[in-house]
Amino acid sequence: MASAIYPSLRLRPTFSSATSLSSSSSSGDIKPRPAVILPLLVSVVNCITYSLTGKGLSLIGHSAGGWLARVYMEEYGTADISLLLTLDHHREDYQGLLIKQEVMTESSGKIRERWTYDVFLNFRGPDMRNGFMGHLYKSLVRSGIYAFKDDEEIERGEDISPKLLKAIENSKIHLVVLSPNYASSRWCLDELVHIMQCLEMESGHMLLPIFYDVHPADVRVQIGPFAEAFDKHRSRYTESKVQTWKATLASVAHLRGYVYSGNDDRIEVITRDILQRLPSSYLHLPTYGVGIKLRVHRINEFMCFDSDDVQTIGLCGMGGIGKTTLAKAAYNEYSYSFEGTSFLENFGEYFKKPQGKVHLQQKLLSDILRRHDIVFNNMDHAVKHRFRNKRVLVVLDNVEDVKQLHSTAIDWSCFGPGSRIIITSRNKHLLEQLGVVNIYSPDALNGKESLELVSWHSFRTEKPPADFRQLSEKLVEYCGGLPLAMEILGAFLFKRSISEWRSTLELLKQTPNADIQAKLQISFDALDPEQKDIFLDISCFFIGMDKDYVNCILDGCKLYPDIGLTVLKERFLVTVRDNRLVMHGLLREMGRNIVRGTSRNHCERWSRLWDPDDAIDVLANNSGTDAIEGLSLKVRATDDENLVAEAFSNLRNLRLLQLSHPQFLGKLKYLDLSHSLQLTETPDFWYLPNIEKLLLINCKKLVLVHKTIRLLSRKLVLLNLKGCTELRDLPVELYRLKSLETLILSGCSQLERLDDALGELESLTTLKADFTALRKIPSSSNQLKKLKELSLDGCKDLWKDRDYTHSDESPQESLPTTLSLTGLTCLMTLRLGSCNLSDELIPEDLGSLSCLEELDLQGNNFRNLQTDFGGLLSLQILKLDSCSELESLFSLPKKLRSFYASNCIMLERTPDLSGCLALQSLHLTNCFNLVETPGLDTLKRVGVIHLEMCKRISDTYRERIMQRWAVDGNGGIFVLGSSLPNWVSFKNEKHSISFTVPKSLNPDLVGFTLWTPYVSQQNDVMSAYSSKITLTNQTKGDVWSLPATDHIRMYREKHIWQGHFSNEEFNLQTGDQVEVSVDFGGQIAILEIGLSLAYREEDTDSSDSDTSEVGHDEIIDEQLILTEAAGGDDELVMEETQSRPRRKMGMGLKTLVGAFGLLTMTVIVVLGIHNGMLRRQNRLRSIDGGKNKDARLKFFSRQGFLN
């Protein structure tokens, strides 16, 4: 059966006279007229496009449309009706069905099965009870159809009306048998009226008329026995009631049905049709469906029923949140509106079973095609092509991997227009990989919903009894809104006593329920080893702590938290609120239960000890083992005498140590008190004589660095005071630190001076003082012979009092003294961004920096930079972004790799780039007056060229750059424009393009170049979406998805992106049928796509020769490809990364009480090696009388503080 189903709409179509038919048919069966099919369907489609008002109704067209149009106009005029008309190419018996969008009932928290009966039989008993109806009823029963027939269901002598009405309401299909004496029965007519009311009031009902020994036209106009019957009724009933009966009977007679005249074959036809109509795919839902209706309504918002495109809807969330239940409810709710439906439950688990892939494909095909007897030789081909013209609803439940869908050949292009694909998963990133835009993460049940669900399962009532109210609320709090937990525990506590409830709640604190844990642990088991460690560390130590702080600690443990935490968030194992890590209570208990493992009573065998009592017990008894990796220790005064440093000697794999009141700090080498918001001064370093790295980041109230820091003269190598906004001065003792290599003062907004003794920091290699109030750099800075990095971004006060202008009247003596760089012979990075610099304030001795590799001057007030940057022979990165007055610059260095000059709105021309042979990225976005970039078209290694909004660059010059460019990598060219160059071989006005690799005289296909015009509603905003291309080799069945370019800056004006991709990975060959699609995300509209193939040139000349052209100007430079292969961007990548804003190293809150002594401190210790980034230590050597110099403990402050 084939039909086209449109979204739920209110339709007010108008039909031309060409579509009207005569009021009667010449035969018993009403025949459709093919001549009116197309005009009718066109009218329907037109109506759909503009009649989007009012309540939701559905229209499904079929070949009897002209007849229906006449019925619609004559009988209903412009009244609102809902018509479902089916099309069957194999039969001429059509039936019209009235239908309305289904509404799930949710009464008293309990969801009933949708239908009690499959079929309700409405007929006049004396006419046919023992004849036609008897045979039909037996045929239905034989076919497994549960039919209601009054003499079978209701005992004689009962008041049958209420039960009959209930049976009508709970029946899916209503068979109305219109016999000659039908209208004489008041019961039949009353039932019919109620049937019609059900059709109007509730969705999903179907009405199928059977004309038994009567002509449909006689019923319609009500002549013969029908007229006689109504005449008799007028003598007994009111005229309004009779008119209601007549109108109802007439409306039913207008529907397409069956005409029966003694042919028994017709009974089989009716039975078969009913089987096809029944919702055999109805899925069972939980008995108590609290909160389901509201959440299904939210899913409806994502279904986009007003679109004929194939839409995908993702349901994601933690295990047990109800994703599958909601998918089933949505499936039951909307399945009737589709031509085919399939629910592939537990897709991921089935896929991993033997023959699981084939099973899933067979179920999908049999569900949608409604055939179980077809054998397909090629299942993949069948899945890809059998549904392309069908509007289907498919649910893929619990998908675990993108490869599972690819392997089963399921792709959104497999399904016809208007199809909806619902995917449930515990992994949000998987949905994003599949291109799902409409993603819904259902909320946990709120307190009221949770209490109601617990009450239904525990007491079978909506509210718990008064005696159990408090216990029920405790259970609700424990479950944390997770429906799975409430169902399992509520059912377990059904008919339990108060004492049993209390005992169970206490037990749950120690031993989580095994059934709940098993469901939750599925997500944990899918993690990589490092991600599992991160999850367990958080569940045991870091819940509620600052994410950046935890990130730094985990990074020190070599657990790669940047990606690890992201994965945990995508899998709903961890959430971040106000930058703090939050974990569902049941997930926390699951993590700790995993740590306990099978050694529940032997905590020394656990990998983590989060309970201080367990930790003290292990240390006091010296029973620690290699298994322990993390330990939380809050030492009480009474425990101090029982704990010594040697207690840690057996903890050879310890990497995390959380301490309070420690008395053995003398060996510490790494102390991190960052984010200690109440810390006003550093500890007395007399107690910390071996500190090598000291972090005091974001200590907002810190005003004093203790003078005993002089004791660290030969120890301290790193001091980070970033963000200490109250710090005004540094002690002179700090400048005596002979070993200090890195000093970070950035963000110390009240720090105005550095002492003249700065030059005595003889080991200093890095000095960062960005956005400070410094008014002067001491002249002794030229003694910093080892300094490699100097960063003074945002230090406007260095020149604040001079306020130099370009006016000729400005007195010369008002000019400031420029920064002296003499003597800084090792300087590699210099940052002077946003320092209010003008042309004259560029350091005069800048050219002496022979080792300088990165120079940042962005955000300054230059006009004509006459500095000879070409003399900086090592310079690789030059940043001049947002120099809004810059008009020109003198030269560029030969080794330049990255040049940034975006938002230089006055810049008209760059220096000649032809000598910058190493240039790999050029950023000139928003240079509105830029006319030319000389030499750019001659360069062959520039992988990224940003020329967005450079409006004055000519089309000719722009195309010359594009035509010569073909550099592999995640970059490309970005230019203004909307039309593809004329040399592009393949073009398509969509986001994808298909082509066949042509034969060529040169068989060496080295890659292809893409052109994509795009536009956005956003303006000058960077897209957060990671753009990608997908290449499908339909000949070989290979699919690749890879990044297209870095994040794209969005504009309302049209731009073109050009990217090149090597054939080394794709291995495309002659004759391959290939499809390439580009995805820039939902905020960017792709206007067109172009593609040209590039073949390797066989050079016969040693000089630059013309590139051989194959087909439509498919070009590439062999030398360029070879250069790219030999080149390598590791160094550039490293430098680019360094040039970006540093990742914030966040730490937890800490308090130090006492002016000169360390009285109260809670810290986290990470074992590591000197100068290593918190690396894992295989063995912690025992401490013997303080003689062992190899013990290394790196401290981190823990969130929270004591008053």
Automatic annotation (TrEMBL):
It comes from the Eukaryota. The keyword Transcription does not apply. Pfam families: NB-ARC, TIR, WHD_ROQ1. Residues 115-278 form the TIR domain. One of its GO terms (biological process) is defense response. The chain crosses the membrane at residues 1147-1169. One of its GO terms (molecular function) is ADP binding. Gene3D superfamilies: Helical domain of apoptotic protease-activating factors, P-loop containing nucleotide triphosphate hydrolases, Ribonuclease Inhibitor, Toll/interleukin-1 receptor homology (TIR) domain. Signal peptide: none annotated. InterPro entries: Apaf_helical (IPR042197), Disease_R_plants (IPR044974), LRR_dom_sf (IPR032675), NB-ARC (IPR002182), P-loop_NTPase (IPR027417), TIR_dom (IPR000157), Toll_tir_struct_dom_sf (IPR035897), WHD_ROQ1-like (IPR058192). Keywords: Leucine-rich repeat, Membrane, NAD, Repeat, Transmembrane, Transmembrane helix. This is TIR domain-containing protein. It comes from Brassica oleracea var. oleracea. The lineage of its organism: Eukaryota, Viridiplantae, Streptophyta, Embryophyta, Tracheophyta.
